[in-house]
# Entry
Amino acid sequence: MNNEQELKEIVRQKYSEIALQDKEDNQASCCGATCCSTEVYNIMSDDYTELNGYNADADLGLGCGLPTQFAKIKTGDVVIDLGSGAGNDAFIARAETGETGKVIGIDFTEAMINKARANAEKLAFHNVEFRFGDIENMPVTANVADVIVSNCVLNLVPNKDAVIKDIYRVLKPGGHFSISDVVLVGNLPDALRKNAEMYAGCVAGAIQREVYLELIKINGFKNITVQKEKAIIIPDDILSKYLSEAEISSFKSGSTGIFSVTVFAEKPVEEKEACCAPGCCN
# Structure
């Protein structure tokens, strides 16, 4: 199904449309995409509204978890939000890091960047900025972030390994991330995985849970922890767009599961070389 650049363009176009929709429209669709259901299919069932920093104008209802709740953000931290959308997670992160910290949101959809910047200006937040760019090659120097958060974004990126490598590059030694994402257990039916609209709707771009965790491990992260996990149920009227009745029955009775997970991991602290006076080392 398409090459990486085509898939990224599909996502960019969909999320440009989403930036112009209201939250209610987004919640009645697959992660904000246009495969609308008569049942509200909002895989982000966690409630943000009671969290410090929550801003209704920045909440497009697109997430699949609450990574900031688990991110262990401290006062003064530099925090990066990958796929920052209209700014919701970035503003909540700012409430944690305070006036002495800094939050950088990165998104590759210009409409989202414009919306986030407008929201930040209305709130007079001078230590929150939004940068246009790909999260596989962030417009950020190395070893700058104490914490990285992301909410339902990596599943939309074809090259997840590149994103994880760049997260490692950008984090300070000893820094960490907390990322909410969509993963699979078992294989999705081909009709779901190959459909471009479902790809933009978060599901078809998801990879196997164990592969996801292994990617994090092989890229050098330590203390990898699944902080939260919940099942995602796709309503029949969405499944019927892609599968026959028999295929829906088989899909539901099989071992395949779609899950939202929030994963924490740390970049190791680099060991300092021993320092000794001339003549004391052999």
Notes: Confidence is low (pLDDT under 50) at residues 26-44, 271-277.
